[in-house]
Each structure stands twice: as structure tokens, then as C-alpha cells.
Amino acid sequence: MTSSTSSFARLVRNPSVVPIGVAVLVAVVAIAMSSVVTKGVANQLTELLLLVTLALAWNLVGGYGGQFSLGHSIFVGMGGYATAVILTLFKTPLIPTILLAGLASAFIGVLLAYPLLRLRGPYLAVGSLGMTLAVYGWMINWDFTKASASYQIPKYAMLSIPTLFVYTTILALVAFIAVFLLVRSPLGLRLVALRDDETGAASLGVRRVRTLIPVWALSGLLTGLMGSLGALQKGTITVDAAFALQFSLDAVIICVIGGLGTLSGPLIGAVIVYYLRQFSDDYSNLALVIEAVVVILVVRFVPGGVVGIFSRLIFALRVRMGKPPASIATQALPVVKRRDRR
Amino acid sequence: MDVVVQGLLLGGLYATAALGLSLVFGTMRLVNLAHGQFLVVGAYLTSILVSIIGGDPLLLAIPVALVVGLLAYPIQRYIFTPVMAQGEEAPITAAFGVGLAIQTILILVFSSDPKSLTAPYATAQLNLFGIPINVSLLIATAIGIAIVIILTFVLKRTPFGRQVRAASLDAEAAGLVGIDVKKTYARVMAISAATASIGGVLVAMSFAIAPSSGTGWLLRAFTVVVIGGLGSLPGTIYGGLIVGLVESVGAVTIGPQYRDLVVFGVLVIILIVRPNGLFKKAVRT
């Protein structure tokens, strides 16, 4: 009896179990609810979860990696078009197709990362922006993508709204867990080390390209899957919609508002941005202005975003209550090392 | 031959559009992601003035440039400069936010339809030794060269120019000898935005311009600046000429619909091959 409670207590104390457990629980509840909620709600939640996935994937590169990518629209478009084209040409079953589209996007991620990783800071931002517009310019003139005409997702592959919602929930859950585990892995530590002090990390033997390529690949994979499901939700796909720069902008806005390089930042940011857009439905541009101003204010005054505000509040509260404040550094780092010493 | 001359003149226009970006980078190592939006703002404000009081867009571009400069001053002083101390990523994000805000406000006010500025002489064509020349592009090239000469004179020969050069060499030391670096930065950004706004008017006289064209022009300007060597004003002219030439030749050989692809492709290739610019010695960090 006692041994079971203590092992349970140890399980709960394990820092990776609680967030993953909560995420799995939320996802299971969401999937269970999928047949109950109205189609409108399921549709909206699908959109929200797609934004969450996009932001989680971007945050790997842009937040933890410190690489301000404006190229993620390419992955979204790649995922969407790969899905539509493979389904149309080969009549393959849906789930392998989605996975294939994700893999194609991951491959593009590696392909883009090789040249982009030679660039740093603003050069990377402008370089990836250039790639986005170049790819757009190519796709919009390419007969294979039916140029500016739309591409239909074949009828047999269309999903009902609740099913699509289940798929999206699973994708968002996978993205969350993948980011969570990656950031706590040695690879994730190297990633953050490179962001914080490249020279220092290099002097400890961290290889920039070798560290960043897998991260870009994972980010591309997740974004491509998101693009694939997004295309399935819309039913038709156009170059204008699929390769829109807006996806890159959304990812940046969400992560900056929520908190760059934090686990919950993309989730919080996505919810804020999504509901801001819902409330100002007829004024989508007004919402965008508000978002842009908030981004500026966040960068200027609270670089940690919403998550940063909260962690500062908690920090201040703990100090006031006389508890030893857990420093931000130990919160972000895995506790493995400390346990070893004990 | 026609294509080459057209390309070079187009390059003059590009150089004018890119000068501000180069100036800001040369002074404070800041890549202003909102540069394209400054161009577009200049074009739109001028188009308002033209529709209200009528008259010549080029003359009206001068008061508009002053206004845009005044608008840019606080953006640098109260947003970019404080954020620059936070490291590399913060100013990128801040400039991104500023650009996005400007672009969306323009869409809200003017809708997203493209606009262009017209003047009777702008569409005219000269015939020089049998080669047709667009007057608007010729004017743009001339203005670009004039701005380079004026700016170089200001930077080299005036007290303000000395402050700018001191601040760009070593901001801390400049502060120690009594230069207000923050104000200097803000003034440089104001000048940059003013030239960008003039560039925007010149662009709108040759091409249609929409609120969302800012990003495309940012990329063109950045390509020009990267080729010409980051921060070098005369280099910007060479860079502009090269980009204009490549784009015109590319448009003729591959197809006019691939114009953007050619320019942005060149940018990406140059960034990959020579991340520090074509005419600068590579700096290994």
C-alpha cells in the first residue's frame, strides 16, 4: 500500500509526467466530446488547435532556437499541397498520405535549414522571408500546382468535422509532447545553449548545424502535418491561401504574445489571438493591428510575454511569502542532474 | 541593349528605395524590417495630398518625407533603441510588429487595392540614341544619386555627421564625449524613413503599390543592400544597378511573371554564398 503511494508520489514529482499527463487528459476529454459538441464548435476548436500546432512548431525554431523564421508558410503550403496532390494522383488512403505530407515537409525543412543556418539574426529573418516569397512566386506560376486555380481534395478523402477535430487534437497533443520531450533532451539543451551563447556552446563542443537540422526537420514535420489537416478542413487549396505569409506572421505573433521559448506560451498565445479574432470577426484587420501593437508592447516592456508576466508574479509572491524562490533557470532546466547528485 | 538600359534605370529606382535601409544598418547594425512599410506610407500619404490639393507628386513628396521622418523618430527613440539592448532577436521582433501595424492600418484606411501615382511626364518616354527610356525611372535614378551625394556630404562634413559616425563606431565612447546617442539614432531613422518615403513615391510612379507590397520592397531593398555591401551608401547604388539589371534580363529570358522569383532567388543565393555581402570581406564570427 505504502509502496504504491510512494511510487505514485515519485511519479508525480517526476517533472515530465504532470504536463504530459494533463495534456493527454485534456486531449482524451476533447476526443470524447467530439461527437457531442456541435459542428460549429468542433470546427472552431479545430482551427484553434491548428494555430496551436503551428505555434508550437515555430516556437521550436523561433523561441527555443532563437531563429526568427518567416519561412514556415512554406511548410504549411507544402503539407497542404502534398496532401492534395498525392490524394488526387495516387488515390492513397488518407492517414498514410497525411504522414507522407508531413515527411515531405520535414524534408523541405532540412533542405531550407542547410542554407538558412549560414545566416544569423536579421539575415535569417530576411532570408527566410525571401524564400517564402520566392516559393510563392514559383508555385503561383507552376502548372503542376494548377498555378492560381484551386486544387480540390478528392471526395473520398474528405473527413467529417468531428473526425477532423479528433485528428487535429491528436496532432496538437503529439506536437506538445514532442516539443516537451525535445526541449528536455540533450538536443534541446544544446539548442537553447546555442541560442543563449553560441561561442560558449561551440567551445563546449556543440555543433550548430548538427543541432539545428533535426530541430528544423521536426518543426517542418509538425507544420506540414498542420498544413495537411488545414487543407482537409478547407476542402480546396489554393497557392494564395496555402503559401500565405500570414501563417508565418501568425506563428510569430502567437509565440511572442504567449512567451517565446516557453512550453505554454504558444498555447496561451494561440487562445488569445484566436478569440481576439473571433470577437472582431468583421474587423479581422483591426484584430491584426491590435495584435501588432501588443507584439510591440510585449517586446518593449515584457519580453517574456504572458507566461513571463505570470512567472514574474509567482516569483514575487513566493518572495513575499518567504519561500525560497525557485529561480527561472532551474524551472527551465530538467531536474535530472540534481537528482543524480543526491 | 534596351533591356540593359531599362535594367540599369530600374536599378536606380531600387537603389533609391534601399538607401534608408543601408543608412540605418550602417549606423546602428539594425535591419529595419519595417522599411518596406515606410516606403508604402510615403506613397500613400503623397497620393492623399495629390488628391486633396492636386499638383505634382514629386514636389508633394518633400513635405510627406518630412512627415514620415517625424513619425519614424519616436519609433526609433521609444521602441527600437530601448529594445536594441535586449539582444539580437528583440529589435527584429519589434520592427516586425511595427511593419505589421503600419501595413494593417494602411489596409484599414485605404483598403487593400493597389494605387499608383501619375504625373504627365512620368509615363513619357525619351528616345536616346534609339533606346527608349522611361522618364520616371530616369528621375528616380537621378534622385537616388543626389540623395547619396547629399547624405555622404552630411555624414562626412557636418557636426551631425560626425556624431552619427562616432555613434556607429562606438556608441559607448560617443556617449562619453557628450553625444546623445539615442537622439542621434532616432535622427538617423528619421532621415532613413524620409528617404524611404521619397523612394516610395518614385516606386508608385512606376509601379502600382498596395499596403501589402511593403514586404516585397523590403526584400528588394535588402537584396540591393546586401549586394552593395551592408551600410555602404555608394555600394547601394551599385547594388541597385546590379539587381535592376539581373531582374530585367531575367524577366526577358525566363518570363516576366518570374520577376519576383529572380530577385528573391538571387537574394537567397547571395545570402547562402556570401552571407556578409558580395563586396565585403567575409567576417568570421
Description:
The complex is a heterodimer of chains A (342) and B (285). By secondary structure, chain A is mainly α. Chain A has a single domain, classed as ABC transporter involved in vitamin B12 uptake, BtuC (Orthogonal Bundle). Chain A is 77% helix and 1% strand. Chain B has a domain of 199 residues. A two-stranded antiparallel ribbon of chain B has the order 1-2. The radius of gyration of chain B is 18 Å and the shape is globular.
Short synopsis of the structure:
The complex is a heterodimer of chains A (342) and B (285). Chain A has 342 residues and is mainly α.
Question: Topology, please?
Answer:
The complex is a heterodimer of chains A (342) and B (285).
Chain A (H helix, E strand, L loop, with lengths): L1 H12 L3 H17 L5 H26 L7 H19 L3 H23 L4 H19 L11 E2 L8 H24 L1 H11 L1 H6 L4 H27 L1 E2 L1 H4 L2 H14 L6 H15 L4 H18 L3 H16 L7 H5 L3 H6 L1
Antiparallel strand pairs in A: 1-2
Helix pairs in contact in A: 2-7, 3-7, 3-10, 3-12, 3-13, 4-5, 4-10, 5-10, 7-8, 7-10, 8-10, 12-13, 12-15
Chain B lengths: L1 H27 L6 H19 L3 H28 L4 H22 L14 E4 L2 E4 H23 L1 H11 L1 H6 L4 H26 L7 H15 L4 H21 L5 H15 L12
Antiparallel strand pairs in B: 1-2
Helix pairs in contact in B: 1-5, 1-8, 1-9, 1-10, 2-3, 2-4, 2-8, 2-9, 3-4, 3-8, 5-6, 5-8, 6-8, 9-10, 9-11, 10-11
CATH topology of chain A: ABC transporter involved in vitamin B12 uptake, BtuC
Main sheet strand line-up of chain B: 1-2
Count of extended strands of chain A? 2
Average of the residue pLDDT scores of chain A: 85
Strand content of chain A: under 5%
Rg of chain A to the nearest angstrom? 21 Å
Number of strands of chain B: 2
Order of helices and strands of chain A: HHHHHHEHHHHEHHHHHHH
**CATH arch. level architecture of chain A:** Orthogonal Bundle
Largest interface: A-B, 38 and 43 residues
Please report the distance between the alpha carbons of the first and last residues of chain B.
Answer: 43 Å
Low-confidence stretches of chain A: 328-342
